[in-house]
Every structure is written in C-alpha cells, then in structure tokens.
C-alpha cells in the first residue's frame, strides 16, 4: 500500500473510504446491469431468464446491499457538495455526515419490505 | 512555498542547509504526488482536473434524481422487482421520456464512475505501466458499455418475436 493511505481517521476519513468502496461496487454492478439489459436485443426469453435470477431470495439480498451502497453514496455525495460549495460546509461536515447516516438508516428501513418482502415470502412461505 | 533555506525537494536537505529556523520550526512536507521537475509529463494539463472535479459534482446531483427514481420504479413501486420482464421494458421504452431518462442515466453514471475509478487507479497503482494498463482496460470497458447501452436504447424492438 502507498504510504499515507491511513489518514487522520474519524468521520472525515472513514466517510471518504466508504464513498470509494461504495462507488467502486456500484460501478461494477453498472457494467453487469448494462449487459443484462442488452439481452432485450437478443430475445424476450433470454432477457426474462436473466431477470428471473434477480428475483431469487439470495440476489434480493444483494439488491438490498446495492440500494444501501447507492443511498450512502448519494447522501454522502450531497454532503461533499455542501462541504465544497457552502461557506459553512467544512465547519459542519461531521454533523452533515451523521445527518446523512440518519437519513440512510430511515430509507433503508423503508426499503426493507419493498425490496425484500417477496424474498421473505418465498423463503418462509406466504 | 518557502523563501529562505528550503529547497523544493520536501523534507530532505541534500545540500546540508538547515531546514529549521525561526520561521520554520518544523520541516515542510510536500503534498503527495506534487508535480516536480522530475515527474513525467510535466507539461501543463490545462484545467482538466478542475473540470473533472466540477463534473463529478454536477453529474452527481443529476444522478441522485435519476438513479433514485430508477430504484423506486424498478424495485419499490408496483410489486418491486417481481413485475420486471421484457413486457415491462417494452412498455417503458415506448415513451421517449423514459428513453431519455435511461440514456442520460447511462451516460452520466458511466462517465461519473469512470472518472471515479480513474482516480482510484491513480491513487493505488504506483507503477506507470500498471496504471497505463488498468486505465486502458477501464476506458475500453467504458466505451464498449456506453456504446452498447446507447445502441440498445435506440434500436429496441418490442416486436422482436
């Protein structure tokens, strides 16, 4: 590892690390997602076959993880914009991070049933 | 930077001059990866990095709207992932509005992600050859994915069967 990768720690550094990790994960999913969508140009059956895997309980969990990564990246990204463009932004960066985490927790709780409900019913029966 | 005894070579003092004086109680540490006379490609790159920085923020704001809307439609509303299929895609892409939505999301997300990964490669791959190969792979994959996705959106045929 290059020297100096572990910086000062605390909210500033760890939100930066989480932003990178979520960004890379989302980007790799994006490649796969464009490829699977491209199957609509092959045949309806080919597309529906692949989408069927997206509806299985295990992949539903991965989708919940994807939603978690995207929502964190979006909320922290708005925080970064505020830090860069709002004159008081750097002063409130910690408070803004914990606000973003709070909103993230609420949204993830809200996404629980819509994203995982069908998987729950399939695994535990109706 | 400094005006007195400090050279431009960071913390070291090859010529033996003192690094410390009344105005400099501690050695000055150069910012990492600062361009010096010895680093390759010292010619100015214009404002490319500034425009890249700005693009990440502007595209980020637009992507928050496009992607969260996309997630709501695909994973939350109207039965969530269960309703997705060829017929659902055909229904949505019958509308130029959703075609434009998906096209904008594809281009912005790919460019935003590619620029992000370019930064990650530059930060962690130290050897110039490794960087060149990783970024070559990245740009190839990006061009392929953007072209493929664009082609699919514009040539979609609901009556392919």
Automatic annotation (TrEMBL), chain A:
The chain crosses the membrane at residues 21-42, 54-75, 96-116. It comes from the Bacteria. Gene3D superfamilies: Fumarate reductase/succinate dehydrogenase, transmembrane subunit. It is found in: Membrane. Pfam families: Sdh_cyt (PF01127). Its main location: membrane. Keywords: Heme, Iron, Membrane, Metal-binding, Transmembrane, Transmembrane helix. CDD domains: SQR_TypeA_SdhC_like. InterPro entries: SdhC_prok, SQR/QFR_C/D, Succ_DH_cytb556, SuccDH_FuR_B_TM-su. Its cofactor is heme. Belongs to the cytochrome b560 family. This is Succinate dehydrogenase, cytochrome b556 subunit. It comes from Streptomyces physcomitrii.
Automatic annotation (TrEMBL), chain B:
The chain crosses the membrane at residues 54-77, 137-156. Residues 1-16 have a biased composition (Low complexity). It comes from Streptomyces physcomitrii. Keywords: Heme, Iron, Membrane, Metal-binding, Transmembrane, Transmembrane helix. Residues 1-41 are annotated as: Disordered. This is Succinate dehydrogenase hydrophobic membrane anchor subunit. CDD domains: SQR_TypeA_SdhD_like. It holds the Pfam family Sdh_cyt. The lineage of its organism: Bacteria, Bacillati, Actinomycetota, Actinomycetes, Kitasatosporales. It comes from the Bacteria. It is found in: Membrane. InterPro entries: SQR/QFR_C/D, SuccDH_FuR_B_TM-su.
């Amino acid at each position: 590892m290059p020297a100096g990768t572990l910086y000062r720690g605390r909210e500033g550094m760890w939100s930066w690390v989480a932003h990178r990790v979520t960004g890379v994960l989302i980007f790799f999913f994006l490649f796969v997602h464009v490829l699977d969508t491209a199957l609509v140009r092959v045949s309806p059956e080919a597309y529906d076959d692949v989408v069927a895997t997206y509806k299985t309980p295990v992949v539903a969990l991965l989708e919940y993880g994807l939603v978690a990564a995207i929502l964190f990246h979006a909320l922290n990204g708005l925080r970064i914009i505020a830090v860069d463009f709002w004159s008081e932004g750097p002063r409130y960066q910690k408070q803004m991070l914990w606000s973003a985490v709070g909103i993230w927790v609420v949204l993830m709780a809200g996404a629980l049933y819509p994203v995982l409900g069908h998987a729950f019913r399939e695994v535990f029966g109706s | 930077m400094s005006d007195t005894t400090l050279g431009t070579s960071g913390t070291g003092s090859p010529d033996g001059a003192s690094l410390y004086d009344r105005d400099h109680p501690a050695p000055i540490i150069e910012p990492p990866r600062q361009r010096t006379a010895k680093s390759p490609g010292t010619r100015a790159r214009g404002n490319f990095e500034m425009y890249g920085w700005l693009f990440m923020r502007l595209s980020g704001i637009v992507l928050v709207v496009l992607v969260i809307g996309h997630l709501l439609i695909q994973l939350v509303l109207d039965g969530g992932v269960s309703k997705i299929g060829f017929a659902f895609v055909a229904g949505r892409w019958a509308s130029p509005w959703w075609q434009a939505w998906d096209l904008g999301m594809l281009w912005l997300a790919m460019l935003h992600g590619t620029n992000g990964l370019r930064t990650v490669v530059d930060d962690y791959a130290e050897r110039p050859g490794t960087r060149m190969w990783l970024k070559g792979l990245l740009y190839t994959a990006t061009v392929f994915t953007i072209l493929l996705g664009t082609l699919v959106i514009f040539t979609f045929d609901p009556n392919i069967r």
